[in-house]
C-alpha cells in the first residue's frame, strides 16, 4: 500500500517501476514465442533480461535504493539490447532506440550518456549486424540524434520537475516543506524502519492562542509571527531533522534517530526557546507539542494520530508544554504565569 502511494509522490520511483514492468511485458511474449520455435539461446536471453528487470523493480518496490535500481535497470536493459542486436541482427537493433531513450529517464544524464555511448560504440565496432558501412553510419547517426534529443528532453524535464516540486512541496509563506512533502517523508521513514528498524520520532507543534494575534494586530502580524517561529525552529533543530507546515499555525517535525528520552529532550528544548525568545510586541508566544515514536505496523495516519492526541492533551493541560503519546512518558513543563501575557494562557 505504501509503495502504491509512493507511485503518486516519487517521480523517479514511478519511472523505475513503470519502465521495468512495461519492458518485461514487451519482452516476455517474444521469449514465449522463441521457446515455441526452439530458439533456445535467444529465448533464454530474453528470459534472463526479463527476470533481471523484474528483480530491479521488486528491489525498488520493497524499499531498495531507487537510484541504484534505476542504474541496474539501465545496465541490464542496455546489455540485453546489445546482446539482442548481436544475435538477431537488424531485428534486435530496433530495440536499441527505446533503450537509449530509457537510459536518460532511468539514470542521470552523465551516466546515461556513458552507458549509451558504450552500447552504440560496441555495436558499431562489432558491425556484424550491418550489411554495409552505410548501414553502420546510418545507425550511428540516428542513435546519436536519439541520444541528443533524449539529453535535451531529460535536462528540460529535470528543470521543470524541480520547479514544480519546489512549488508543490513548499509552503509559500514560510518556505518550509508542506503537507505533501511531509507525507512523502513519512512514507520513506516508515519504509526505512521496516527494512532496518531505524528509529524516528514525530512532533506536532501548534502555536498557542494564535488567533488572538490575528484578531488583535491583524493578519500581517500573524504572518510575521509564523515567519519568526519558523526561523527559530530551524535554528534549534538538527540538520537531519525535517520541518513541515501543515496548515495555519500547525507544524510537524520528523526527527530521525531518537528514542523516547531524546525526542522529549529535543522538543522540551524547542518549547523553552520559543517561550523565552518569541514575542510580538509585549506578548509572549508559546507552543504546545505532542510527540509519538514510530512503531512496528504504523502507517502515516496512525503515527500522526498518536502525536495529534498527545498535542490535544498538551492543549487541555494548559498549553506551553510537551506531551508524549503515553502519559507515563510525558515530558512537560510549567506554563507561563498568568500575569506574563494574555496570549500565553
Explained architecture:
This protein has 345 residues and is an alpha+beta fold. Strands 2-3-1-6-7 form a five-stranded mixed sheet, sandwiched between helices. A two-stranded antiparallel sheet has the order 4-5.
What is the beta-strand fraction?
A: 5-15%
Provide the succession of SSEs.
Answer: HHHHHHHHHEHHEEHEEEHE
Shape: elongated
Helix share bin: 55-70%
Radius of gyration (CA) equals 28 Å
Briefly note the structural class of the backbone.
Answer: alpha+beta
The biggest beta sheet is recorded as: 5 strands, mixed
Tally the helices: what do you get? 13
Low-confidence stretches: 328-345
DSSP summary, beta strand count: 7
Q: What is the CA–CA distance across the termini?
A: 43 Å
Q: Average pLDDT across residues?
A: 88
Multimeric organization: single chain
Strand order of the largest sheet: 2-3-1-6-7
Amino acid at each position: 500500500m505504501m509503495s502504491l502511494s509512493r507511485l503518486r509522490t516519487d517521480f523517479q520511483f514511478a519511472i523505475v517501476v513503470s519502465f521495468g514492468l512495461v519492458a518485461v511485458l514487451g519482452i516476455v511474449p517474444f521469449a514465449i514465442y522463441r521457446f515455441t520455435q526452439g530458439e533456445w539461446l535467444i529465448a533464454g536471453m530474453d528470459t534472463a533480461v526479463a527476470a533481471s528487470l523484474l528483480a530491479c523493480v521488486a528491489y525498488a518496490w520493497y524499499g531498495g535504493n531507487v537510484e541504484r535500481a534505476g542504474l541496474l535497470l539501465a545496465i541490464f536493459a542496455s546489455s540485453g539490447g546489445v546482446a539482442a542486436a548481436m544475435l538477431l541482427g537488424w531485428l534486435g537493433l530496433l530495440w536499441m532506440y527505446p533503450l537509449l531513450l530509457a537510459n536518460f529517464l532511468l539514470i542521470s544524464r552523465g551516466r546515461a550518456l556513458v552507458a549509451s555511448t558504450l552500447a552504440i560504440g560496441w555495436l558499431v565496432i562489432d558491425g556484424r549486424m550491418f550489411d554495409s558501412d552505410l548501414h553502420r553510419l546510418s545507425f550511428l547517426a540516428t542513435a546519436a540524434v536519439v541520444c541528443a534529443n533524449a539529453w535535451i528532453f531529460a535536462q528540460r524535464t529535470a528543470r521543470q520537475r524541480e520547479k514544480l516540486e519546489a512549488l508543490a512541496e513548499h509552503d509559500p509563506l514560510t518556505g518550509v516543506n508542506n503537507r505533501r512533502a511531509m507525507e512523502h517523508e513519512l512514507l520513506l521513514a516508515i519504509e526505512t524502519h521496516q527494512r532496518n528498524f531505524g528509529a524516528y520520532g514525530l512532533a506536532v507543534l501548534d502555536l498557542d492562542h494564535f488567533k488572538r494575534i490575528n484578531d488583535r494586530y491583524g493578519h500581517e502580524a500573524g504572518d510575521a509571527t509564523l515567519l519568526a517561529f519558523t526561523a527559530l525552529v530551524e535554528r534549534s533543530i538538527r540538520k537531519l531533522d525535517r520541518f513541515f507546515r501543515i496548515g495555519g499555525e500547525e507544524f510537524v517535525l520528523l526527527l530521525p534517530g531518537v528514542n523516547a528520552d531524546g525526542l522529549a529532550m529535543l522538543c522540551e528544548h524547542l518549547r523553552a526557546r520559543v517561550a523565552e525568545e518569541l514575542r510580538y510586541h509585549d506578548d509572549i508566544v508559546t507552543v504546545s507539542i505532542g510527540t509519538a515514536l514510530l512503531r512496528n505496523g504504523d502507517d502515516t495516519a496512525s503515527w500522526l494520530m498518536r502525536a495529534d492526541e498527545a498535542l490535544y492533551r498538551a492543549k487541555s493541560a494548559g498549553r506551553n508544554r510537551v506531551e508524549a503519546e503515553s502519559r507515563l512518558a510525558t515530558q512537560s513543563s510549567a506554563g507561563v504565569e498568568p500575569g506574563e501575557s494574555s496570549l500565553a494562557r
